[in-house]
Q: What sequence folds into this?
């Protein structure tokens, strides 16, 4: 029973990070209908931004977080302007977007390896605030990592803010409308070009936060962008293009993963993730909460 | 000299996989991000045949190709009904799943890889199989099946209405492309003499797709040209070490943004193919001149 709760806590904390990442995939997919595979590289950049803000510039922790989020938002928007907009302007098929995203991912990952180097970097413990230093909180018979709690809390706050923004502001409504039907929204006077920039900025900012959190729990290294593929699976699992789907999919996937590695074996974990992905696509391509299968499958 | 021969053999090996993908992507319009998975199956099966069972190389290649083809048939059964990017994502999941499974089989070296395989692939094998694959692809594309594939690519619904069994045509394209990838994997394993699951990751799959698109969709000669350029490009830039992949990524973006049809998309670099394009251009120019003349006379 104890182990069960321990795994549950681990699953929730990893799931919250997946959710932060998956939301970026899902938001972009809901508007532009393509899987932005460069998102993982943006997350990786976020981790590096946070790391350098703390260790080189010596910024206070909260400010480092903020700078990292702004930095990745900027990178995501620049990527959209330079790489995706020309394709959008000529109505290129989705595949060109995916290939371009892959190219951007190769470019950013190897750019980081070439300039900063492939060695993993660890967040300096002494620079982290007390509540984030490695260590555990004793709760009954459970040992909960402080970082895990922080991950869950930060992710929950960010995602709650996002949901409020999407549901209760005019801009959020514009995003919803554009996701529903871009042409009609443009006819109704919504600046869809701005909505797309906004979506990339939001996804990028959340990617930055997720990257810093992930880097704090583990390490910061260029191959991080490949690991974020898990969050993409989570987004597909929950239903690409659906925000609640991305959240639910992330939590479920993370829970399944932690329980599989806890009770079966860590080696089976990745196999389970990809197995779930294929099974989901076969049974219900639109995911748990995606738009109806008629549209997409 | 040996260095250049090495690059040429690498081009030849990759060409087989790219030709297969060209049938699937360039002519049938299905996109796969999991073809490295089929290469991996071909490579590992062939390696088992040559290094563990000590069977002749030709049997190893055949077994690798057959295994890749069989798995692709199973995969096709469950995923070919998916549309657009969902098929893409499914193949991606498949490719990664193959890699993860291989990571966990100690019999073939697991994640550390498998070293000291026999070196059986030589220039003759590669050249011979390249020629065979080009001829097979060429004949397939110019047969009834090939035209059916193009029909499926152009408009699936219309193709179905004209009595083409879309699912079956897609399956043919998928299985042939997987067999080609399996052959390429078998050659690769016995040329490099070591294989590791990470060699067949998603980046490799993407590389293959990028070669097809770079050369031009729907063109066999384009695929050949694209493979030759993109395989040798990182070698040319080898002195820049890490920067070569940065340049590569940038090149991909620039091509996608500025020349989406690839180098020679939709045409063939044969005398008749070039003549066709030339005459089409001439006809277009003549039409433009005629319209201009009519405009001058005020008839339009």
A:
């Amino acid at each position: 029973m104890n182990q069960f709760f321990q795994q549950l806590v681990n699953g929730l904390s990893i799931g919250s990070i997946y959710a932060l990442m998956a939301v970026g995939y899902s938001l972009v997919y809901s508007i532009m209908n393509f899987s932005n595979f460069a998102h993982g590289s943006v997350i990786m950049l976020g981790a590096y931004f946070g790391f350098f803000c703390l260790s080189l510039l010596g910024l206070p922790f909260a400010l480092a977080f903020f700078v990292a989020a702004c930095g990745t938002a900027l990178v995501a928007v620049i990527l959209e302007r330079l790489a995706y907009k020309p394709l959008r302007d000529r109505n290129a098929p989705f595949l060109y977007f995916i290939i371009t995203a892959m190219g951007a991912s190769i470019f950013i990952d190897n750019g980081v390896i070439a300039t900063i180097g492939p060695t993993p970097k660890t967040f300096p413990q002494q620079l982290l605030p007390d509540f984030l230093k490695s260590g555990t909180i004793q709760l009954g018979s459970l040992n909960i990592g402080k970082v895990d709690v922080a991950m869950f809390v930060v992710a929950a706050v960010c995602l709650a803010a996002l949901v409020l923004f999407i549901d209760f502001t005019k801009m959020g409504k514009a995003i919803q409308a554009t996701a529903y039907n871009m042409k009609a929204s443009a006819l109704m006077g919504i600046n869809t070009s701005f909505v797309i920039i906004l979506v990339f900025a939001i996804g990028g900012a959340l990617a930055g936060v997720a990257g810093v959190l992930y880097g704090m729990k583990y390490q910061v290294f260029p191959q991080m962008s490949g690991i974020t593929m898990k969050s993409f699976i989570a987004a597909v699992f929950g239903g690409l293009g659906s925000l609640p789907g991305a959240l639910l999919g992330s939590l479920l996937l993370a829970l399944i993963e932690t329980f599989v590695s806890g009770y079966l074996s860590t080696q089976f974990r990745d196999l389970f993730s990809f197995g779930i992905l294929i099974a989901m696509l076969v049974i219900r391509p639109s995911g748990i909460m995606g738009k109806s299968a008629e549209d997409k499958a | 000299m040996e260095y250049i021969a090495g690059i040429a053999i690498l081009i030849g090996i990759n060409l087989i996989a790219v030709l297969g993908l060209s049938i699937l992507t360039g002519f049938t319009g299905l996109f796969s991000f999991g073809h490295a998975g089929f290469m991996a199956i071909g490579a590992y099966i062939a390696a088992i045949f040559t290094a563990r069972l000590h069977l002749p190389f030709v049997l190893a290649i055949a077994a690798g190709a057959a295994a890749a083809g069989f798995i692709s048939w199973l995969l096709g059964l469950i995923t070919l009904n998916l549309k657009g990017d969902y098929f893409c994502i499914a193949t991606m999941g498949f490719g990664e799943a193959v890699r993860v499974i291989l990571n966990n089989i100690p019999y073939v070296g697991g994640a550390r890889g498998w070293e000291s395989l026999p070196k059986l692939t030589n220039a003759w094998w590669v050249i011979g199989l390249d020629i065979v694959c080009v001829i097979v692809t060429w004949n397939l594309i110019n047969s009834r099946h090939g035209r059916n594939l193009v029909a499926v690519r152009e408009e699936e619904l219309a193709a179905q209405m004209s009595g083409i069994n879309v699912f079956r045509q897609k399956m043919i394209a998928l299985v042939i492309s997987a067999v080609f990838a399996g052959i390429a994997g078998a050659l690769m394993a016995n040329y490099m003499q070591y294989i590791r699951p990470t060699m067949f990751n998603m980046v490799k799959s993407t590389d293959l797709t990028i070669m097809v698109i770079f050369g031009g969709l729907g063109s066999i000669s384009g695929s050949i040209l694209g493979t030759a350029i993109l395989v040798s490009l990182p070698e040319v830039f080898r002195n820049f070490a890490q920067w070569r992949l940065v340049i590569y990524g940038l090149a991909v973006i620039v091509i996608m943004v500025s020349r989406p049809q690839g180098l020679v998309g939709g045409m063939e670099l044969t005398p008749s193919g070039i003549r066709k394009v030339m005459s089409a251009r001439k006809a277009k120019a003549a039409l433009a001149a005629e319209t201009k003349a009519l405009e001058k006379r005020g008839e339009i």
Residues 2-263 of chain B form a domain with the ABC transporter involved in vitamin B12 uptake, BtuC fold (CATH 1.10.3470). The mean pLDDT of chain B is 88.
